[in-house]
Amino acid sequence: MMRRLTTAATKATPVSGEDAGTGKAAMRIDAISIFPQYFDALQLSLIGKAIEHGLLDVRAHDLREFTHDRHRTVDDTPYGGGAGMVMKPEPWGEALDSLLADDDSARRPVLIVPSPSGHPFTQEIAADLAGKDHLVFACGRYEGIDHRVLDWAADHFDVRELSLGDYVLNGGEVAALAMIETVVRLVPGVIGNPQSLVEESYSVSTEGMLEYPVYTKPAVWRDLEVPGVLLSGDHGAVDDWRAERSREITAERRPDLL
Ligand code: ADE
Fold first, then answer.
1. Mutational pocket test of ligand 1: of 87, 163, 170, 179, the residue with most ligand atoms within 8 Å of the beta carbon
2. How many angstroms separate the CA atoms of 118 and 105, rounded?
3. Ligand 1 atom with the shortest distance to the CA of 166
4. From CA 180, how far away is CA 130, in angstroms rounded?
5. How far apart are CA 58 and CA 73, in angstroms?
6. Measuring from each residue's beta carbon to the nearest atom of ligand 1, which residues come in under 6 Å?
7. What pLDDT band is residue 204 in, cutting at 50, 70 and 90?
8. Which of 61, 67, 207, 233 is at 20 to 30 A from 227, Cα to Cα?
9. pLDDT beyond 50 at 129
10. How many angstroms separate the Cα of 173 from the Cα of each of 4, 60, 96?
């Protein structure tokens, strides 16, 4: 079963797939997984709103729909031996064929394969992906997907193997969700106030440093006071204080970023 997360958008979005407000085609995102329910979470919050408003067209597909045996088998033992199972190429091939047949974007779609052995996923990569028309996430489980799928896909997709970090998840779904959220919040119109994107960690305006700490009312809470400079009304002093805190925090936690 394909889960289209655009139930409301089918009403709001013209047949052309264009957003009525901007005239720009919605960014299309497909995720293929044996657990497509993971992607239901994208209906929440600002991303859910962007889907409703037709800025994003998100579809999750069950890989088992592309199997033909009674047990809907998606894995098999690894050639060469070793522990664990490997995802069979045939269901992946059919799933990707079906997406290519349904792709009407001008450029070749980007196929993202989340994997602990991938290139590190960064804010810079996210910003690049935010400008694409169509992203496909291939979420593997077990020991991974038969590598011929990626070799074959390179003739049809812009293939990127990407890692969320130096740790191992049970599968690509949680990594794909993190990547989707990081990318789509950079798509114009998804975040209500684009200024909030400007001053966050890893952005160009903070020079790639970590963000300074933030405070809100009340000025005193459980005997703890907000740093006085933030109440001073002196914008230059506030900027200097924030830049200094960013530098200190980055030096302590992520000296590699300096
Ligand atoms: N799949 C399993 N672990 C992963 C990771 N760290 N990043 C991306 N995909 C993964």
1. 163
2. 26
3. 6
4. 9
5. 26
6. 114-116, 163-165, 167-169, 172, 175
7. low
8. 207
9. yes
10. 16, 11, 17
d(CA 110, CA 157): 5
- How far apart, in whole angstroms, are the C-alpha atoms of residue 90 and residue 103? 20
Q: Closest Cα partner for 36 from 145, 176, 169, 190? A: 176
Q: How far from 127 is each of 11, 69, 119, 184, CA to CA, in Å?
A: 29, 41, 15, 9
Query: Which tokens hold the place of 29?
Result: 């995102």
Report the distance separating Cα 87 and Cα 105, nearest Å. 28
- What pTM, to 2 d.p., does this model score? 0.90
CA–CA separation, 171 and 113 (whole Å): 11
Protein residue whose Cα sits closest to atom 6 of ligand 1: 116
Q: How far apart are CA 8 and CA 11, in angstroms?
A: 6
CA of 77 to the centre of ligand 1 (A): 21
- How close is the Cα of 41 to the center of ligand 1, in Å? 19
pLDDT higher than threshold 60 for residue 240: yes
**Chain position carrying tokens 């077990």:** 142
C-alpha closest to that of 138 among 89, 183, 73, 71: 89
Average pLDDT, the chain: 91
The residues pairing with 3 across neighbouring beta strands, listed in sequence order, are 60
The rounded Å distance from CA 119 to ligand 1 centre is: 11
Which residue has its alpha carbon closest to ligand 1 atom 5? 116
Instruction: Give start and end residues of each alpha helix (H) in 22-156.
Output: 45-52, 89-101, 123-129, 147-153
